Amino acid sequence: MSPYDPSAFPPFAVTVDLVVLTVRRHALCALAVRRGESPFQGRWALPGGFVRPDEDLSAAAARELVEETGLCAHDPDSPVQANGAHLEQLATYGDPKRDPRMRVVSVAHLALAPDLPAPRAGGDANSARWAPVDALLAQGGYGREDEQATPLAFDHAQILSDGVERARSKIEYSSLATAFCPPEFTVGELRRVYEAVWGVALDPRNFHRKVTGTPGFLVPTGGTTTRQGGRPAQLFRAGGATLLNPPMLRPDV
Amino acid sequence: MSPYDPSAFPPFAVTVDLVVLTVRRHALCALAVRRGESPFQGRWALPGGFVRPDEDLSAAAARELVEETGLCAHDPDSPVQANGAHLEQLATYGDPKRDPRMRVVSVAHLALAPDLPAPRAGGDANSARWAPVDALLAQGGYGREDEQATPLAFDHAQILSDGVERARSKIEYSSLATAFCPPEFTVGELRRVYEAVWGVALDPRNFHRKVTGTPGFLVPTGGTTTRQGGRPAQLFRAGGATLLNPPMLRPDV
DNA sequence: GTGTTTATCGTCAGGAAGACGACTATGATC
DNA sequence: GATCATAGTCGTCTTCCTGACGATAAACAC
């Protein structure tokens, strides 16, 4: 087989799909849009769209993220967090039958965002919402008789599942959990992020010792807050460290 | 922008490129093929080729792997090791200018193989060889006046670098290092794999304690060998465990 | 036999994490 | 204003894991 033969290559459509995760009311939620057209009309799907002819993959993902959420994405290599989300490539899905109409290869990206106001619907999707990932992935199961109980369109359940697993494992050994927090946050708020993403309860005392004892993870801003009730808590910003060594240990599993 | 509009999508070429790694003579090596045609004619590149119209991405990668090495690839989810290599998706590269002729999106895959006899050249590549990754990535640097000192074609240096980094980090927390070993191997041989991939020296006694003390990592076959010289060493096969918990710690960095 | 090489077992100190007690500083309630 | 509930913060103790390194074992080369 002759590689890169410009005269005879099978044409593909290339899209980006986004797994946008946030933590709302102690639950890990993903952004879902309702499809307005066939196939899978009326079903929920991940936001996404075609890559433009002269657009890089990461640029396409960032553009879709802005269109859907208004979030400004940061480069994967500069994990600063201003009013933006963390964005990284997740994986690529190219089963020949994943789209019944034509051959579509989708480069999925993962975005982590702090809790936001209502999502803004893109021009093409007639509605968008944050939904708990458990509900989105519970296929036909436990959900109320809600449109949420229907499976996601295309192979988006698989993509979402892979994105959630990436997020779950990545907060173990990186400081990425701070991407779910506002610019200033307390140790307790960060702990609730871990608890929501992992679905477990963590010991507040050991967690406090761990995160405050890891150099470069958190830097105190000097302020305090009582927005969570109880005794006032110190406010922190994310420090420069991106890798946690030793990592945060996820209980049992 | 209307997603999945079959009447108006920009056509892309989709390829798979392979980072095939092995350990030869205590060095981490990658499979490189010499390009027989323009662009980058005569330069070294990663093996790869077009995805066929009705072929899944992983199937295309497995096919290319067989064509280049004769290795039978295993499914990423069934990490058994018979006469086959570990194969997993690495990342996707889609810079609009990465191929000067047309828009090509390449889904790179990472393969880990035991030390093999000479690679077999595919029909399209006039030569193929194992080369130390250090030499392939040393752009214009230290190499002898060898064709190896020229940078790899396209963005393949970046792809190879990402693949090597993935391998380096993945053997920390998984049993994947056994994919570099023959079906039966000794603790010392496994240690030399880690040393070659990480480029460090490990304490033989602590390494032995770690790998033999991790349940499911190694299972003794009962046999022994002296092929490394010295006192006879027990032979092991890879156990069922795929995740190492706690992980193997990489010194310093 | 002596030396060299590799494998394997053991010991010890230091660090990190889980379990959990205790105290502190707010707001809510009586 | 006293009491209570809530959340945050500091310690202690035990256990496990790792790194450093001594010691022994079993082959081969001479």
TrEMBL record, chains A, B:
Pfam short name (any one): WHD_NrtR
Family under the similarity heading: Belongs to the Nudix hydrolase family.
Gene Ontology MF, one: hydrolase activity
Alphabetical list of InterPro entries matching this protein: Nudix_hydrolase, NUDIX_hydrolase-like_dom_sf, NUDIX_hydrolase_CS, NUDIX_hydrolase_dom, WH-like_DNA-bd_sf, WH_DNA-bd_sf, WHD_NrtR
PANTHER family assigned to the protein according to its UniProt record, in alphabetical order: ADP-RIBOSE PYROPHOSPHATASE, SLR1690 PROTEIN
Domain of life where this protein originates: Bacteria
Protein name: NUDIX hydrolase
Keywords: Hydrolase
Domain Nudix hydrolase, chain residue ranges per copy: 11-155
